[in-house]
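B., you asked whether I could sanity-check this one before it goes into the benchmark set. Here's the sequence:
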Amino acid sequence: MEVIPAIDILDGKCVRLFQGDYDKETIFSDYPIDIAKRWESYGAQRLHLIDLDGAKNGKPINQSTIVEISQSVDIPIQVGGGIRDFRTVEKYIQDGIDRVIVGTAAVRDPDLISKTIEIFGEESVMVSIDAKDGVVAVDGWIKSSKISVFDLMDDIVDTGLKRFMYTDISRDGTLSEPNYGSIEDILEYSPMKMLAAGGISSIDDLNKLKIIGVEGAIVGRAIYTGDIVLSEVFDTIK
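And here's what the prediction gave me:
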């Protein structure tokens, strides 16, 4: 199982939100590039970058910072937040981003997924399914789409998508534990590979996710608070 450190960028800083609430942010560093280099030095094989300003505003805001990070490390980077059209997808990939993540666009414009796969290949894109009480949230988790997780999966399964990321918003940033029940239900329902996020607070959580069968786990707040020591994770989780 791949363990992927998350770097969320808001106003150019590395932050973590509580349950996706922009009014409940914790700033962990003014220099996201330094954080990216740190996680790489600890053994990370991929980084997960989210432009929180972009997610909220519907267009990339921290793109220059993200590209600078990608040029400062030697590992692949996947990027989400404000990616709503093909022009943005194309720009990110041309700038060296390995994989783009679409969330709101998966609800409103699933053809964007198909086009990205057709032009750049199935490894170039991943859908982020971010849900609260089983309903998908959009626009930086601020609004409800009123679409269930399973209905969205039905809508995107024919696009050629290879993997998706699932986040239980109510667990995100809480250090509680992942929503194992929902993760198992969704994995059973979907033929696609899953990356899980939200509530991961210990190596035990990571081991449980590995047993359940997710392809990868996105770790956020716990690696910033020290609840998970990232350098130990890569010696433990294979």
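One thing to flag: The longest strand covers residues 2-10. Otherwise nothing jumped out at me.
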